[in-house]
Fold this protein.
Amino acid sequence: MATYLIIGADRGIGYSICRQLSDRGDKVVSVCMGAGDAYSGTVIEVVPNIDVTSDRAIAGMAAALAARGETMDVLIHVAGVLGLDELGKIDYGDVRRQFEINTIGPLRAVEAAMPHLAPNAKIGVITSRVGSLSDNGSGQMYAYRVSKAGANMVTLNLHHDLSKRGIAVAALHPGMVATDLTKDFPGDFDYITPDEAAEGLLQRMDVLSLETSGRFWHANGEELAW
């Protein structure tokens, strides 16, 4: 049994990850932006009202982890946002918002959680292949692409710094998942459910090691190009 810290777990993929972990007997700390009402009646511990764009809120998360007196074996950062745009119609306020959540958010949260991670812990950052430079064949989606490319760089940097301490780090793409986040996404895709995405993501985290650290993985096991 391991102890997992899931950041951004109010609903969707994060919620499915927490539930699947708890069902298999792992301890779960669910960090939610809201009150975490979905976990009422479960054994999953909730750290509520944590906005990953807020230094004060993240400090509150760190304080809650310190108060538990127990280290985390695995951290999975799920929190993210998707906004659509195209050249000529870009809202730069929204660009900043997506960058703050998708790129700075995981860096801020992981850095704050560092003192509360176990030796040889593992970290997964849920990002997107839309942030892959090599995979960009269509353009558009400036804010989302740029912010996820930034999240990929954050993850790779964390690998270089933390692998020296025995901590494995991976960037993870969940696939095309039917959630509130993707309901307006353009194109015709074969969407999977949050439960299916969570299952694949947990498989990737289960096998993550220092030997496979610093890579970009699809939930289905395919290695993606940065």
